[in-house]
Design goal:
With 161 residues, the protein is mainly β. It is 12% helix and 32% strand.
Length: 161
């Protein structure tokens, strides 16, 4: 146990920061980590006027941001837990994926699952973005798959506890 802790601390001291090119055509600050150990960076609405989301209504909220991710990376756009819990507002395609070759403006697909109107104001933190590495795979067509204990069980197959 102590060995694992020492290895983890040593690894954290040698983390490298990946540089990502960004254009800000809006008037909001760049995404930034709120704390040293945050995984996501807040994305803010870049609006000329407030947007009202009625219950069950969805809208694309622009950020004014454009990014160029390195090959082998993606950015995931995820809901903010506070908006989801307090207002029922979430990212409808969660997580939304921004591919490394996409160069358009980052938009956030918000939906109001709450029972009351929700107003999105300029500068409001509407989602969080997590940048992560990913693997590129190639499928191999086969006739059978290897057997596992779980097999075809899914959708609650492992029980409630």
């Amino acid at each position: 146990m102590t060995f694992m802790t020492i290895v983890t601390i040593a690894t954290q001291k040698h983390w490298t920061m990946t540089e990502i090119k960004i254009i800000n055509r809006g008037h909001q600050p760049l995404p930034a980590y709120a704390t040293a150990q945050s995984a996501g960076m807040d994305l803010r609405a870049n609006l000329d006027a407030p947007v009202v989301l009625r219950p069950l209504q969805r809208a694309m909220i622009k950020t004014g941001l454009y990014i160029a991710l390195p090959e082998g990376y993606e950015a995931q756009v995820r809901p903010r837990s506070g908006l989801a819990f307090k207002h029922g507002v979430t990212v409808i395609n969660s997580p939304g994926t921004i591919d490394a070759d996409y160069r358009g403006e980052i938009g956030v697909l918000l939906v109001n699952l709450g029972s009351e109107d929700f107003v999105v104001n300029d500068g409001e933190r509407i989602a969080q973005m997590v940048v992560a590495r990913h693997e590129t795979v190639e499928f191999k067509l086969v006739e059978t798959l290897d057997e596992t204990e779980r097999g075809e069980g899914g959708f609650g197959h492992t029980g409630k506890k």
